[in-house]
Design brief:
The complex is a heterotrimer of chains A (276), B (368) and C (299). With 276 residues, chain A is α/β, with parallel strands linked by helices. Chain A contains 10 helices and 10 strands. Chain A has 2 domains: 193 residues, Rossmann fold (3-Layer(aba) Sandwich); 73 residues, no CATH class. In chain A, strand 7, helix 7 and strand 8 form a beta-alpha-beta unit. By secondary structure, chain B is an alpha+beta fold. Helices cover 43% and strands 14% of the residues of chain B. Chain B has 13 helices and 4 strands. Chain B has a 4-stranded antiparallel β-sheet with strand order 1-2-3-4. In chain B, 35% of the residues are buried. Chain C is an alpha/beta fold and 299 residues long. In chain C, the strands form 3 sheets. A 7-stranded mixed β-sheet of chain C has the order 1-9-8-5-4-2-3. In chain C, strands 7-6-10 form a 3-stranded antiparallel β-sheet, with no helix packed on it. Chain C is globular. The chains are: A alpha/beta (276), B alpha+beta (368), C alpha/beta (299). Chains in contact: A-C, B-C. At the B-C interface, helix 1, helix 5, helix 12 and helix 13 of B face helix 1, helix 3, helix 4 and strand 11 of C.
């Protein structure tokens, strides 16, 4: 299997930082706040590989650093240190050494993001179709007819009724907003999709439909995904491999089935048993 | 036959200008002397000085006279005049500790070093008409003057005072003053490109329009903001202007300017070393204009709060929102320009509306 | 020499120097003009001085014109296409007062510098002519992004997708692009400018012209340029044509003509005559007069 994303020793510290930060935080110290300088160690030395067509889960409680990790990969935040390489169309992009224009170009055309809060991923002041159109325009599609057709097809694929595509997403239900976000994320045929707690806060029945939709889309398009969640159900449903994070560190990783059936780390055991 | 209404504009302008002049001259009143404006309407005059941001008292009076008393227009005269003048030099930073104070109050302390000095203020006057002023003669002015001067204590000499806030600094309640040698941002020579330094923020507000500053500051005071100011010290007085001697370079006094200065103290925050301290907002302007100085100091604090927190929660904390909208000459000008002809753009608007209506009609007429 | 600051002013303007502004200010303006020409379409910030006319009345254009004018120039000022509208007359008076030696002219072909508000003259301009626009809003992105710092970055990256989204939303709602004037126009393949409130009719005149176009925004303190022989393309979709005002009579389907000179190729002012009838007339007064003269000469 070929890699699409290699994350190497990625670290994010909020605050001034000091030489002791990494030594006095982490699961063994039961904190991610440095007692010397007060900095918050959000992510420390995270390394992993995502393969083409793979769905990798990142699991942990809130504050574990899982969202911070994907935020950096989508350029919403800058790492304190570390690297990430995005393998795309024969190029190996060293993500954090690209200039801002190059980063945004990748983000707008070759990566997709679905946020927990739809207002982050969508512009609520333009129509659902307009939100899709924006991504298509960013990738230099300049035919109105083509944009319109593609937007219609994408929204149909994510089960947004065509009759509603010219309405503002602010008037949609939470589930429908997520479906528009997914359509937008998929619109440019990006090979990498980042999903951050996409079903959190939705009704159970709506959650199930969204997860089924993501599964179907993944099977059809073969897109690689990073799925950030605190929900074991999501991990079980979507992912083949999973990383478990606590206090900014990756404490366990492996096949999802294995982790759920036979967790090694005490923390993972707690997580799994609490869900049962 | 008239071509279009706008033809003949040149004649219309000439006529309008003559009528403006006639409005002043017609009737029974004697021509206003510049002195009268400066002496008897000093607060209006002050407003023009500060908003025009050119300290030229005599031209400020002329501006008020020529603009028929419109303070925005009058300030505009000074600004436009300034555009014709080269900048010959820069003074060093002026210390308002050297101010010859005519009024000074603190809302923070009852007793301040040197004492409070109420000076001339309408703050505690009842706004009741004194109808006898409707008809007063020169003798009455003489009488008032004699009365005031005659009752003054002999040794009433001009005084300078220490700053109230210095004592707070000594006690560590307020962060020490950073002595910045940075050349201040010159808003008359550089456009504001955000983010801008605090010196640009202060300079922009120092020539801002009183009402504009007040409205934005008031929004913060009322609840769209969180400054909660205490007036540490408000002082009004004459600051000596020190200009470097052209040959020796030594600072020499070239005159003095009337300045209002306000320092507000706001609730405390963590300082760099972790200990909480009070925070400061600063306001100052030419002339005697206390509302402007206070409003400015509140806005200075509000913008700084947002800068420190890294997020803007209220309009009055947004440097772009505040600084780009408080200038009276720019906002008044743009508001006025809407009276100019917009025939071409409106023609264009009609064309688009007709086209869009046409499409809608086609759609409704089309057979189903 | 700078004029002496005296109070014995007898005539309005008499004590001001040539072209009003002090020489340093003019030098700075010329430097900004060079920069604007070198980076076509880029908004160059400059320290806009206060003019003795109000912001919004063309102070940006005036500063450019004052920095350009020398005593040998011939200057024309138009507003809404006409030399005689109040604002144009007012600005021309100011130039006459402060720029001794400069010839004022009403003829487009005679002018070396033309200052305009809302129109480009119908007569194509030559390489030795400069058209100075008065600009109220220099930044086309302001409709999609209120924050100036963000807009600057968007321009740098040529990140204009959100402008096109506006066009998309227009097409969805009206099946038409409804931008009537100030039509966003891409210069030299990168920067998109606000070409000032000229009608769409005038936008094609910006493309590959012989003359220099300069834009001055006084209140917003920006200068930008469309140099000669530069691409200027109104933004649209590949399959949606950019349409200019057509002045077509809805009933007959024919284009209206100027009732004065009979022109059928000019931008027209539409108004009601004293009898309440709808009539059309050239908005460019100099063009209309020139045609009339030629018609009379031909007779």
């Amino acid at each position: 299997m070929k890699p699409i994303l290699d994350v190497d020793n990625l670290t994010r510290i909020h605050g001034p930082g000091c030489p002791a930060c990494l030594d006095v935080t982490g699961p063994e110290h039961d904190t991610n706040i440095c007692r010397h300088c007060g900095s918050v160690v959000a992510v420390a030395g995270a390394s992993f590989r995502l393969h083409k067509g793979e769905v990798l889960g990142i699991m942990g409680e809130s504050g574990s650093g899982k969202s911070s990790l994907v935020k950096m990969l989508y350029f919403d935040d800058k790492p304190t240190s570390g690297q990430a390489t995005f393998h795309d169309e024969g190029h190996a992009h060293d993500l954090f050494s690209l200039n801002e224009a190059q980063q945004l170009r990748l983000r707008d055309t070759r990566m997709g993001m679905v946020y927990q809060n739809p207002s982050l991923g969508l512009n609520f002041d333009i129509s659902a179709g307009g939100n899709i159109a924006e991504r298509l325009l960013m990738s230099d599609e300049l035919s109105y007819r083509v944009i319109r057709e593609k937007a219609t097809a994408l929204l149909a694929r994510t089960e947004v009724p065509p009759a509603r595509m010219d309405e503002l997403p602010r008037n949609f239900s939470g589930g429908m907003q997520q479906r528009v976000q997914i359509a937008r994320a998929l619109s440019t045929g990006a090979p990498l999709l980042l999903l951050d707690e996409v079903t959190t806060g939705l009704d159970l029945s709506v959650q199930a439909r969204i997860l089924d939709l993501i599964m179907e889309l993944q099977e059809v398009t073969g897109v690689s995904m990073l799925v950030v969640t605190h929900d074991l159900g999501v991990v079980r449903h979507l992912t083949t491999r999973t990383i478990v994070m606590k206090y900014g560190r990756i404490i366990e990783s492996g096949l999802t089935d294995q982790i759920l059936e036979d967790p090694q780390a005490a923390y993972t055991q707690q997580l799994v048993s609490s869900a049962l | 036959m008239a071509y279009v209404a706008i033809r003949g504009g040149a004649d219309a302008i000439k006529g309008s200008s003559r009528l403006m002049d006639a409005m002043r001259a017609m009737g029974e009143s004697a021509p206003l002397e510049l002195d009268q404006i400066e002496r008897q309407m000093p607060l209006l005059h002050s407003k023009v000085l500060s908003e025009g941001s050119l300290y030229h008292p005599r031209l400020a009076s002329l501006a008020l006279k020529q603009s028929l008393g419109d303070s925005l227009e009058a300030a505009f005269f000074l600004r436009a005049y300034r555009s014709t003048k080269p900048r010959l030099g820069e003074t060093a930073t002026h210390d308002t500790r050297n101010m010859r104070v005519i009024r000074r109050v603190s809302a923070a302390f009852k007793d301040i070093p040197g004492g409070q000095m109420l000076g001339a203020t309408p703050d505690y006057l009842h706004r009741l008409f004194r109808f006898e002023l409707m008809d007063e003669g020169a003798e009455r002015f003489d009488e008032i003057t004699r009365d005031w001067l005659g009752n003054r204590p002999e040794n009433d000499t001009a005084l300078t005072f220490p700053k109230v806030l210095d004592s707070l600094r000594e006690e560590g309640l307020l962060a020490p003053l950073e002595n910045s040698d940075e050349t201040p941002f010159d808003i008359t020579r550089e456009p504001l490109i955000f983010p801008v330094p605090r010196s640009a923020q202060l300079a922009t507000m120092a020539r801002g329009e009183t009402g504009g500053l007040l409205a934005l500051a008031y929004s913060n005071m009322r609840g769209y903001g969180d400054v909660h100011p205490t007036v540490g010290e408000l002082r009004v007085g004459y600051v000596p202007v020190m200009v470097p001697h052209p040959v020796t370079g030594k600072p020499m006094e070239a005159g003095e300017v009337l300045v209002t200065e306000c320092e507000i103290v706001a609730m405390f925050e963590k300082s760099d070393d972790g200990a909480p301290v009070f925070t400061l907002g600063y306001g100052a302007c030419f002339g005697h204009n206390e509302v402007k100085a206070i409003a400015m100091s509140v806005l200075d604090r509000a913008i700084s709060v947002a800068r420190e927190k890294g997020r803007i929660e209220n309009p009055s904390e947004d440097p772009e929102f505040v600084l780009l909208h408080v200038d009276g000459i720019e906002s008044m000008g743009f508001c006025t320009h809407y009276k100019m002809p917009h025939y071409v753009t409106f023609q264009s608007d009609m064309d688009r509306l007709r086209a869009a209506q046409g499409k809608t009609e086609e759609a409704t007429d089309a057979p189903r | 020499m700078h004029p002496v600051d005296t109070m014995g002013q007898t005539r309005e303007g008499a004590e001001y120097g040539f072209a009003f502004l002090d020489e340093d200010a003019k030098r700075e303006l010329r430097r900004s003009i060079f920069k604007a020409v070198c980076i076509p379409g880029h908004q160059v910030p400059y320290a806009s001085r206060e003019m003795p006319i109000a912001r919004g009345f063309g102070t940006g254009g005036m500063q450019l014109t004052l920095a350009l004018l020398g005593p040998d120039d011939a200057c024309k000022v138009i507003d809404q296409g006409a030399d005689d509208s109040v604002n144009a007359a007012n600005i021309r008076n100011f130039f006459a007062l402060t720029c001794p030696g400069v010839t004022g002219t009403l003829r487009t072909e005679e002018a070396s510098v033309i200052q305009t508000r809302h129109r480009i003259p119908e007569l194509p301009l030559r390489a030795d002519q400069i058209l100075v626009f008065q600009v109220p809003y220099p930044d086309p992105l302001v409709v999609v992004e209120p924050n100036a710092a963000k807009r600057r970055r968007m321009h740098g990256r040529a990140d204009y997708a959100r402008l096109w989204v506006k066009l998309y939303e227009d097409m969805v709602a009206f099946d038409e692009i409804t931008i009537s004037h100030r039509y966003p126009t891409r210069i030299n393949g990168h920067y998109i400018i606000d070409p000032s409130p000229i009608p769409r009719f005038d936008v094609p005149k910006l493309h590959q012209a012989d003359c220099l176009y300069l834009f001055g925004a006084g209140r917003e303190k920006r200068i930008y340029a469309v140099p000669p022989h530069t691409d200027a393309v109104p933004i649209t979709f590949n399959d949606v044509t950019f349409a200019v005002e057509n002045f077509r009579d809805k009933a007959t389907g024919k284009r209206h003509c100027c009732r004065r000179c009979g022109a059928d190729d000019s931008f027209l002012d539409e108004f009601l005559d004293d009898d309440g009838a709808r009539v059309f007339q050239c908005s460019d007064a100099a063009y209309c007069d020139m045609r009339l003269e030629r018609l009379e000469a031909a007779e």
